[in-house]
Amino acid sequence: MKVAVLLSGGVDSSIALNLLKDQGHDITAFYLKIWLENELSFLGNCPWEDDLNYAKAICRKANVPLQIINMQQEYHDKVVSYAISEVKKGRTPSPDIFCNKLIKFGCFLERFGDQFDKVATGHYAQVDNLSIPRYASRVLDMRDDGQLVRAECQAKLLAESSVSKHLLKKAVDSIKDQTYFLSHLDQKQLSKIMFPIGYLKKSEVRDLAKKYDLPNKNRKDSQGICFLGKIKFRDFIKHHVGTKKGCLIEFGTGKKVGEHEGFWFYTIGQRKGIGLSGGPWFVVKKDTKNNIIYISNKYHSQNKKRDTFNVYDFNWISSEKPEKINLQTKIRHGEKFYNCELKFLNDNSATVKLDEQDQGLAPGQFAVFYDDDICLGCGKIF
Asked: What is the CATH topology of the domain spanning 305-381?
């Protein structure tokens, strides 16, 4: 096939490229430049130039052409603006979810998708196709009292005329699994996507990097939000939203125990960055109207935890909400799953009951739902 590989400069996408090349596909690599160079350069250095140099070296070694695509404006308009808007409302954004939805498998597919059979990345996930028999009306000729009549009947078509549902499935490596960040994709996007390393453990990817003797074989994995690089999210928010003095109030007693620079710097369940002795302190509530942050050093007590919350604004990958109500969910990226019961209030909102309690349920972040190893989609917590 003719395959576009989105190359980041990291080990994972580099192995994806080499595996596909070894399989005989016609490969073109793309580096998407999303670093907001003019806007954020004074905050610090983003490693995008190092990323690009590694991407060039990988392509030279594999003898694969590389195109550099500037998507800074699209990223700012579709992802950064969303993150800032959510922060101003006191919610916790998930920019990486929308980077995948709107940029890598959004803008890129719109511009280049028709030129390629598939688009591949180094995500830890898997795509599977489920064939579903299609039903249609078939006209049959029948005789009734010597007269030729036409009658319609429902007939199941043969397997070759079935339609496909594209399933997003967990990666083999449960620690590295990235389906949480891919949960906002749809059927059209999944039909064009390949995840060549989804069946591999991270250790196996590292071994392959040594086998291929890649220039980045010893490079560490990137951390943090994709467009910020090494820049702290707090500094980014401060640049866009500024500061405003507010009170730190001890939850339960109502006692003022300190001050903060703005509710937008905090998220529910946060522990680091509060800066008070006598802790550990946790953020348990935000009053965005009055710019108050409520904190507690007894946050692990049972009455501070929750096992029930509401979600809305669903994205179901199959385009249909699940019939099952007993599912599994992740409420943040990571290995931790909860068993849950999903009770729909209407087509676009539901109540979620966890089988355990959690201390970090923050409005704005996404709950992602699973049926065993299949990622069904997501909803936003409120």
From this structure: Elongation Factor Tu (Ef-tu); domain 3 (2.40.30)
